Structure formats: structure tokens, C-alpha cells
Design the sequence.
């Protein structure tokens, strides 16, 4: 390795460390950021390998943390996977995180249902009549929740099932 190559490798690692000091990143995201900074693929590979050996990059653990946070915020499995993929996580890491992560409450429940319940609670707040149920159903569906999950979350929250509502008529 020449002096120039050693300097570039250290520079790539330093840049990667600076990026990681600001926030955790997925390997794919870090690779992209280093490429945008002008580093060659070989330099990026060496930096990623060095940081992985030091256990400073751990895509599965990062994905699991983010999924737990997003579920508490009422995000669906589909939304979590899309967000993870957009941040540079591989499909396998994203799916493993979604299907292998509980909501952290210690309850033996469906994490997708718990996320939907959290989304309903957040939307309606203390007053159960703040958001019309059909609008709430649409909001949850746009977030990627399945209809059976939406119905279960509504039942759990004491709200009427949208199929039991009478259609509104003009008088």
C-alpha cells in the first residue's frame, strides 16, 4: 500500500466514523454517503469491512430498534419495511426486523395489531369522537394496515366497525 492509498483508506474510515457519530446508518446508506463524498468502491469496501469488524455496523440490530420505535408510533409492517428499505437496509434485514421484533411491551400480541391500536389511540386522543371512523379507516389503510387489523384495532379501542355503520344520506 502506498502512502496515498493509506491516507485515502484512513480518510474513508474517518468520514464513515464522522457520519456514524451523527447517527446510526445502514451499510447501504453508509456506502452511498461515502460514494457521494468521492471515495472509490475499493476504499468504501475497506472502510465498511473495518467498521463491521469493530462491530460499529450492525444492520439487523439497527433495523430492530427502528421497527420498535415506529411501531410505538403506530406504523404498519408494510410502512416499516418501506422505511427500512429507503434507508438502505436489505429486504431480508427489513423483513426479519419486522417479523422478529415485538413492540417491547412484553405482551404476547400481534405487533402489527398493537401498532394499529397505537395509531388509533394517537388519532382519537382522549375523545373517541374526534375523528370520524371512515376517515380513520382510510388513514390506517394508507399507512399500510390490512382491513382485518384495522377492524380489530377499532374494536379494541371501543370504536364501531366501519361495516356496521349506516351509510350517510342527504336529507
Sequence:
Amino acid at each position: 500500500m502506498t502512502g496515498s492509498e493509506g491516507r485515502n483508506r484512513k480518510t474513508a474510515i474517518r468520514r464513515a466514523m464522522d457520519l456514524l457519530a451523527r447517527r446510526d446508518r445502514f451499510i447501504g446508506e453508509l456506502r452511498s454517503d461515502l460514494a457521494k463524498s468521492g471515495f472509490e468502491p475499493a476504499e468504501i469496501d475497506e472502510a465498511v469491512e473495518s467498521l463491521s469488524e469493530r462491530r460499529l455496523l450492525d444492520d439487523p440490530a439497527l433495523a430492530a430498534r427502528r421497527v420498535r420505535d415506529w411501531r410505538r408510533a403506530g406504523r404498519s409492517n408494510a410502512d416499516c419495511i418501506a422505511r427500512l428499505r429507503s434507508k438502505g437496509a436489505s429486504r431480508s434485514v427489513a423483513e426479519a426486523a419486522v417479523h422478529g421484533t415485538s413492540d417491547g411491551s412484553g405482551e404476547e400480541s400481534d405487533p402489527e395489531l398493537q401498532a394499529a391500536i397505537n395509531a388509533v389511540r394517537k388519532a382519537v386522543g382522549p375523545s373517541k369522537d374526534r375523528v370520524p371512523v371512515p376517515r380513520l379507516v382510510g388513514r390506517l389503510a394508507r399507512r399500510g394496515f390490512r382491513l382485518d387489523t384495522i377492524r380489530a384495532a377499532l374494536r379494541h379501542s371501543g370504536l364501531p366497525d366501519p361495516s356496521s355503520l349506516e351509510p350517510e344520506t342527504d336529507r
About this structure: The longest helix spans residues 3-22.
